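Data availability (excerpt). The following record was deposited with the supplementary files.
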Amino acid sequence: MATAPGPGPLRWSPISPPDLPGRPRGTGASLTDWRLRRAAEIAAARRAELGAADPGWVTLHAGERPADADQVTERAGLRVVGAVTQLRRDLTRPVPAVPVPRGLLLAGYSPQLDEAICRAHDEAFADRQDVRPSIPPVWTQARTWRTAFRADCSFVVLDGDEIAGYAVSEVHPHPRRPTGPAQGRTQVLGVRPAWRGRGVAKVLLTATLRAFQAADLAEACLDTDSGAPAGGRDLYRGLGYRLRARQVVRARRV
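Predicted structure:
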């Protein structure tokens, strides 16, 4: 994935695992080098587009790989910067009823909320050094203009005119059963600091799970990284999410 300089990410396909069995030796290194060069070109174009001077980042998400794969990524300058845990939940299981905290309102997504959700996201993740401020049009392109985005499975919690929290979701073909029911993915979940500790995230996630069920999806999934609050892991576990896989995240500037 190539991350654009300045506000807002630019997506790039994950680098394929190098030198797996069955490939000619050196294929992984050559492919990695090519993708890094291409990512640098994309980041440079985005720099010019945004008028930004900051460098972009290339990231690689990968599970356990052979030792020579680690050597290839190290030689390419990709260093370990964290880890991502992939979680899944069986949607045939019932979803608990969770009351909305007093004074707050659960509402469905609407396009008029895009900029406010973008600003809420910046505030919710302001303490994370790996998350950069967003430009609203870039946020919209990256989140709610995507083909997989589902407005009927995305929600906000409102306190008057203020967004207290938000959940943005997508629907994708199931990775193991492409001809069967699809998979719902919570792409972004956040709660602004002033509303934390009131159960807002739980309200958002249970609403999302019920929407996934209403859409006749097979399972729900989400990713959480090593920088996420520990309380989030307890929340996911309590709502029935279970570990699917862990990935190491490597990155370098371009």
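Summary of structural features: Residues 1-20 have pLDDT under 50 and may be disordered.
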